[in-house]
Amino acid sequence: MPNDKKVKFTKMHGAGNDYVYVDCFAESIPRDVPALAVAVSDRHKGIGADGLILVCPSESADARMRIFNADGSESEMCGNGVRCVAKYIYDHGIARREKLTIETGRGVLTLELAMSHGRVDHVRVNMGAPILEAAKIPTTLAGDPPIRQKLSAAGREFEVTCVSMGNPHCVTFVDALDDDWVLKVGPEVERHPAFPRRVNAEFVQIVSPDEIRMRVWERGSGETQACGTGACAAAVAGVLAGFTRRRVLAHLPGGDLELDWAAGGEVFLSGPAVEVFHGEWPV
Questions:
Q1: Do 148 and 183 belong together in one domain?
Q2: Is the peptide bond before 145 cis (omega within 30 degrees of 0)?
Q3: How many helices (H) and strands (E) does the chain have?
Q4: Which of 253, 36, 97 is nearest to 53 (CA)?
Q5: Number of domains, the chain
Q6: C-alpha dihedral, 8 to 12 to 17 to 18, nearest 10°
């Protein structure tokens, strides 16, 4: 017999980093979330996304975000995703304030909303202070944090700087962004023995002390159009490695993100949040 049970979803993206969102204020949490994440993320046979995000009630914030990568693994944090969660809960009337709190694997984050015609257009989120202790990133590379440490992958030796934004990042500064770095080196860096919980791999080209271009191979999802935590990590790594100032504009394939590593230690991420369409998916 055909399965007539369905879950309602909303497709959203932040600078092209797209996820399928399920409103768990209104819907029951699906039984097998990892399998659902894999199914909906498939760009040929599914909805097409970098993963699945559950928008859940929270005892400590306006909402709780749970994020599952395209391979079904659960991640701690997503900077573009959390901005879209803020847009969703405001636009859909769950919490109608222009400053919201979202519970994440990184803790409770505060987000400031910018409006256009009564709906959320851009969101600025306090991503918290970067985690710089190697054991907590985690990585076995030397240094707290590891700055310009040697790493070998895909037949190359290169320098990397490692940071955690609640999830692990390995940043490589390159002369030119190309597919060899992202599509060949990226997958090997993700699963390199130096990173016991795998890692997100950022490849960054310096335009100026205030501007960078970057591409990201995301842990569990492959290359994505943008990565909010990756952009934060790149901004922090740029300062640590002596390449950039504390405020930087990051150009990613899906759009631009603004980063500010404030004097107080927190990293602020600003960028768009866009709702694409709604639908139902069989579960």
A1: yes
A2: yes
A3: 5, 18
A4: 36
A5: 2
A6: 30
**181, 114: one domain:** no
**Residues 244, 152 share a domain:** yes
15: left (phi > 0), else alpha (psi -120 to 50), else beta? left
Q: Are residues 196 and 245 in the same domain?
A: yes
Catalytic residue numbers read 78, 227
Tokens of 176: 């030119």
Q: What is the amino acid identity at position 153?
A: A
* pLDDT tens per residue across span 192-232: 999 999 999 999 999 999 999 999 999 999 999 999 999 99
Tell me which residue of 262, 228, 265 sits closest to 130, measured CA to CA: 265
Query: Can you tell me the distance from the alpha carbon of 178 to that of 13, in angstroms, rounded to the nearest whole number?
Result: 24
What is the residue range of 117's domain?
A: 6-127+271-282
Q: What pLDDT is attached to residue 141?
A: 98
Are residues 139 and 119 located together in one domain of the fold?
Answer: no
**pLDDT tens column, 99-133:** 999 999 999 999 999 999 999 999 999 999 999 99
Whether residue 70 contacts residue 37, with contact meaning beta carbons closer than 8 Å, is answered with: yes
Q: Is residue 209 part of a domain?
A: yes
Residue 1 lies in a domain: no
State mean pLDDT over 63-91: 96
